[in-house]
Amino acid sequence: MPDSRVRPRVAVSAALCSVLFLAGCGAAAKGDGATAYADDAGPTVIGTDGSAESRVVAALYGELLADAGVKVRTASTRYSSPADTTHAVVEGRISLAPAYETSTLRALPAGQTLPGNMAATLSMALPPGIDALPPARAQNGVVLAVTRATARTHGLRTLTDLAKTGRLTLGGPAAGDPDAPSAASLRKVYGTHLTETGTTATADVLVLRGTDPVITRDGLVVLTDPKDALPPEHVFPLIGAPYAGLSASKALARLNARLTTAQLAALAASVDGGASPSGTARAWLRSGGLLG
């Protein structure tokens, strides 16, 4: 069987759909027939998980919505993780939050999965009244990277190329993450011969998040994944359906083709360095002609 850390699969069962449907009905009943969304009929409340990346993406969403004439405000609560913001949207405490594909599925009762059709899987896993709008190009999934010197020495451009090398070490800051690949799982998929070294930053093949600033700072070469062994983590708007009208959906969609992983990493690095999320977001959107 395939290693679960590389290609985890969980079927979204009919029983789960029934439970989620009933949960949605219960929420509506509790509100005397109206779904209990944050600030029902009020402004779109945007929440974040507190990370620089989440804060700047939330600011991008806010600027785009405001430009489209949608009333927005930032939630006073700063959540501790993407899972917490997912639950906050699902429970109606906030209207909208930046979310990531695999992390969102992991936070839901359906568990984690890596299906062929992520949009359909998210749609099935989310309860009624919660929408996963189309994702941006940017993602924060696990990547494997090497230094330029290592890439030149071994001729590395893809994970497939690792099979041609001797015994390199595998490790890095994201090596302990739930969706990080193990040496054994990579061997099954790509025929590699890696030795795990934990979270050390001195490994030959580094396990990182795609927006880790060290990739740009150190000029690392991110190895492509032709067999889709690593779970996707594109950023997308997770939103309560009452707030996902045509104007809002069209405004948020402006970001999809324009925001790349490298650009998101740069924006997050600016915010992490003390820049204002809203100012950073506004300047980037204006530079790209995305605001009116």
TrEMBL record:
InterPro entries: ABC_Gly_betaine_transp_sub-bd. Keywords: Signal. GO terms for cellular component: ATP-binding cassette (ABC) transporter complex. Pfam families: OpuAC. Gene3D superfamilies: Osmoprotection protein (prox), domain 2, Periplasmic binding protein-like II. Residues 1-29 form the signal peptide. One of its GO terms (molecular function) is transmembrane transporter activity. It comes from the Bacteria. Residues 45-286 form the ABC-type glycine betaine transport system substrate-binding domain. PROSITE patterns: PROKAR_LIPOPROTEIN. This is ABC transporter substrate-binding protein. It comes from Streptomyces acidiscabies. The lineage of its organism: Bacteria, Bacillati, Actinomycetota, Actinomycetes, Kitasatosporales.
